[in-house]
């Protein structure tokens, strides 16, 4: 499936009386010359992996670098205590985004949607809405196609890579994709979905990629939470009738330009930002010093 813009998808969907997700599914089936049911089954498997990643992340396993692990489990307990500021969808989204991100950091199986480093955002948003609002699985699967279609446009017009565009290209893109899908799940129109995506992405513009020790742990795991919450806020605004002054396609274009302007030190190289702080450097030294000791023992 090839799409030049989100506006193009909206136009086609409206002409055919379809949601963005359903239209994306139809176009993909036509492009690949396969039955829609075949594609639905593939996406159903992806949804199952997302669910399993939440479960795995709630086991409390430590990450490869040892910087994260057990945080999702700790937050879940806080959320369940009734003391949390975040209730309902928001609390679950935080829990699930943390869980999937921690599963990724501990080498668990995740869906890199759109990337491994931002893998917690879409499951965090969609699974929490699915549970809280009892959304049928089939509708969530179509929502994933809406998210995927937006991801295709972002890849074409900008980038999904932290090494090219900073974390805005990863967690920012994931927030936009999740917001578009979630808006449709909750009955929003294609236009409202696009406004939600634009609002979510605007809030993430300029976000740098500065992983401590070059690992997808700090600050990546918690940034997934920030992106998920940003997406949910954008959905709520769009459903209330609040619009984005700048269309989603133009926001995506701006993100691409910002990414090109970012220095290389802030694009996944671990040379700037948080990675270059005294604590960030100390953590990197601790991690790699420990690995060198283990390698020495093995030799």
From TrEMBL:
Record's keyword annotation contains Disulfide bond: no
Domain Serine dehydratase-like alpha subunit: 32-275
Domain of life: Bacteria
Gene Ontology biological-process entries: gluconeogenesis
Pathway entry: Carbohydrate biosynthesis; gluconeogenesis
UniProt keyword Iron present: yes
GO molecular function, a single term: L-serine ammonia-lyase activity
Cofactors (names): [4Fe-4S] cluster
One Pfam family recorded for the sequence: SDH_alpha
EC number of this enzyme: 4.3.1.17
Keywords on record: 4Fe-4S, Gluconeogenesis, Iron, Iron-sulfur, Lyase, Metal-binding
Reaction catalysed by this enzyme: L-serine = pyruvate + NH4(+)
InterPro entries: Fe-S_L-Ser, Ser_deHydtase-like_asu, Ser_deHydtase_asu
Protein family (similarity comment): Belongs to the iron-sulfur dependent L-serine dehydratase family.
Protein's name according to its UniProt entry: L-serine dehydratase
Organism the protein comes from: Carboxydothermus islandicus
Lineage, opening ranks: Bacteria, Bacillati, Bacillota, Clostridia, Thermoanaerobacterales
